[in-house]
Amino acid sequence: MASLLQSLLDPKKNWLAAQHMKTISKRLRNFGLRYDDLYDPYYDLDIKEALDRLPREIVDARNQRLKRAMDLSMKHEYLPEDLQAMQTPFRNYLQDMLALVKREKAEREALGALPLYQRTIP
């Protein structure tokens, strides 16, 4: 069952998944974003922890991309075509650190340790 689901979501094996990936790529290129920029640190504390562990330069570049995208969106504009061609929307920078944080969280839960962080109401 899991392999069937994997094959349905794999853009190399499924034409619809490839078309979806192409559409998402075009939309991200219009604003100069990467797919990992779409993760919200306020929604999931694992993402916040992963962003805290990344080098400062990577987080600053992410924030710049998000600010540029919001600015372009407010102006109802897209990036110029030459800049869109340079964008790499599916180059991941967060996935490895996020996987590490999730593994550590699962290990802590398996050992019965206290959670590293808990959601609090501000």
UniProtKB/TrEMBL annotation:
It is a peripheral membrane protein. It is found in: Mitochondrion inner membrane. Gene3D superfamilies: Cytochrome b-c1 complex subunit 7. It comes from the Eukaryota. Component of the ubiquinol-cytochrome c oxidoreductase (cytochrome b-c1 complex, complex III, CIII), a multisubunit enzyme composed of 10 subunits. The complex is composed of 3 respiratory subunits cytochrome b (MT-CYB), cytochrome c1 (CYC1-1 or CYC1-2) and Rieske protein (UCR1-1 or UCR1-2), 2 core protein subunits MPPalpha1 (or MPPalpha2) and MPPB, and 5 low-molecular weight protein subunits QCR7-1 (or QCR7-2), UCRQ-1 (or UCRQ-2), QCR9, UCRY and probably QCR6-1 (or QCR6-2). PANTHER family: CYTOCHROME B-C1 COMPLEX SUBUNIT 7, UBIQUINOL-CYTOCHROME C REDUCTASE COMPLEX 14 KD PROTEIN. Component of the ubiquinol-cytochrome c oxidoreductase, a multisubunit transmembrane complex that is part of the mitochondrial electron transport chain which drives oxidative phosphorylation. This is Cytochrome b-c1 complex subunit 7.
